[in-house]
Sequence to fold (204 residues):
Amino acid sequence: MLASNLKSIVSDNVLHAKWLNTLSYMENAGAKKISASEHKENVNLIILKHAAEEHRHAYYLKKQISKVDESLCRTYTNAELLSPNHTKYYLHALDIAVCRYLKEVFNLSGYDLKFAAYLFVTYAIEVRADELYPIYQAVLDEAKSKVNVKSIILEEEGHLEEMINQLVGFSDDWESHAAEVISIEKALFNNWVTALAAELPVSA
Fold:
């Protein structure tokens, strides 16, 4: 479903610009959430690296819009995003649901809860990015688009490896908890994809 939706999106300049802007918004929202999870003093290098790279992805995707039509999508207003309500709800809802789960299972609070949520939410997002961006790149290649996201794909793969290394240190049983978080993310993502499809031309 996602691949066919993306073919429809890439074939229409306005939809494609909005799609790039939507991805940029989500990367930016992710970067801000990472920064918000930081301890006031104990900030490790990986957190700084992730926040910086997610911000750069947001910037890179925003710049790619000019390859489609530089007059489009100057802001993150709802009119310039695809499925804006679901887009803005997705990461926020994932964060809340994961915090609730971790609070129940590990009895965490305060900074400890924030950090654990950062680990598991970021892991789920990286798993999703490792699936979504290659599908998008394949559609771009097929359409011979000037837009490309290959550099993001490489960095997201590195992020996933780093998140797994941190999760191993967090809990011996991290994989079973990660599976719960992935199932939460999958439901939210599927709702988002359904909402995206509803905005596409009927022929899609």
Observations:
- Residues 110-142 form the longest helix (33 residues).
